[in-house]
Design goal:
This protein has a single domain, classed as 3-Layer(aba) Sandwich (Rossmann fold). It is about 30% helix and about 30% strand. It has 7 helices and 10 strands. Strands 3, 4, 5, 6, 7, 8, 9 and 10 form an 8-stranded mixed β-sheet that branches. The protein has a two-stranded antiparallel sheet with strand order 1-2. The longest helix is centred in the first third of the chain and has 15 residues, at about 5-15. The structure holds S-adenosyl-L-homocysteine. S-adenosyl-L-homocysteine binds near residues 87, 150 and 209.
Length: about 220
């Protein structure tokens, strides 16, 4: 058995021990090469349970958080899902292996282009990706059964995302300040009623408005 698959099995066991039970989520993680989504210099850390930098000041989330968020969505193969914050595209692939169709939005066009190459290389054909401001959601494709936001919302999730969620739908989103947040699961009960559950403390990069400008990309190029 090579080291890569040993490390992968160890990670899956760790996720189980940490309480992840959804077998669809565990098998999506088991069959997705996380090393593809990570810069060359860090590839030996691909199966450690940690967030890693992917360029432009952004990060690929820690596997436990990817697993927890995916499980919290209670995904089925009938779900139409929106992800805000494509980043490396790793979380998108995990979701797409379980749901019917995934729409994903990223405000950094260069990150989206690289993520799209990974989707193509892995022959994942049920993802539609767009460079835009995900705080506005994807109105042409609403309503969504599930919504996942992989960047931190300040104080509360964007109103447009609530509006684009189906009644009975679930949204998982980190909410807090720039330093730390709580992962929250919202269930939409009717047009203006939600139940909210706090899941765990997390640290995400911030959810920011508008497409990233050229200047912002230059400023963040070496982070
Ligand atoms: N899901 C990613 C992790 C992404 S990190 C993965 O698996 O790798 C969060 C991402 O959210 C960053 O790439 C950031 O650029 C993006 N982001 C922040 N605000 C956004 C917005 N308003 N719309 C779309 N993407 C946004």
């Amino acid at each position: 058995m090579n080291t890569e698959s040993t490390r992968k099995i160890r990670l899956i066991m760790k996720l189980r021990n940490m309480g992840i039970k959804d077998t669809n989520v565990l098998s999506a993680i088991e069959t997705t090469p996380r090393e593809n989504f990570i810069p060359d210099a860090l590839k030996d850390k691909a199966y450690e349970d940690m967030a890693l930098p992917i360029g432009l000041g952004q990060t690929i989330s820690q596997p436990y958080v990817v697993a927890l968020m995916s499980e919290a969505l209670r995904l089925t193969d009938r779900d139409k899902v929106l992800e805000v914050g494509t980043g490396s595209g790793y979380q998108a692939v995990i979701l797409a292996k379980i749901c019917r169709r995934l729409y994903t939005i990223e405000r950094h066009k260069p990150l989206l282009d690289v993520a799209q190459q990974h989707f193509d290389a892995l022959k994942i054909n049920n993802i539609t990706a767009m460079a835009a401001d995900g705080m506005k959601g994807w109105p042409q494709q609403k309503p969504f059964d599930k919504i996942i936001v992989t960047a931190a919302a300040f104080e509360r999730p964007p109103e447009a995302l609530f509006e684009q969620l189906k009644i009975g739908g679930i949204m998982v989103v980190p909410v807090g300040d720039r330093i730390e947040q709580v992962l929250k699961r919202y269930e939409k009960l009717d047009d203006d009623t939600y139940s909210v559950t706090d899941l765990v403390g997390v640290r995400f990069v911030p959810l920011l408005p508008n497409l990233a400008s050229k200047q912002e990309q230059l400023d963040d190029a070496y982070i």
